[in-house]
């Protein structure tokens, strides 16, 4: 919301960073799904 209106370079950089972080979150969720649950 704050990036991109006047600074497209910063907006693109933030979008790229967020895309990588989203991939990391998906990888972590996949790892956690495969961890055996202890009761």
What does this structure look like?
With 39 residues, the protein is mainly α. It has one helix at residues 8-33.
Q: Which descriptors apply to this entry?
A:
67% helix, 39 residues
Question: What's the gist of this structure?
Answer:
With 39 residues, the chain is mainly alpha-helical. It contains 1 helix and no strands.
Mean pLDDT: 88
User: Gyration radius, to the nearest Å?
Assistant: 16 Å
Quaternary: single chain
The main sheet comes to:
none
Structural class: mainly alpha
N/C terminus separation: 44 Å
How large is the count of helical segments?
A: 1
> β content, as a range?
under 5%
Order of helical and strand elements = H
Q: How many beta-strand runs?
A: 0
> Are there runs of 5+ residues with pLDDT below 50, and where?
none
Shape: rod-shaped
The amount of helix comes to 55-70%
Lay out the secondary structure.
Blueprint: H1 8-33
């Amino acid at each position: 919301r704050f990036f991109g209106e006047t600074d497209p370079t910063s907006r693109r950089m933030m979008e790229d960073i967020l895309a990588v972080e989203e991939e990391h979150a998906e990888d972590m969720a996949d790892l956690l799904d495969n961890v055996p649950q202890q009761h």
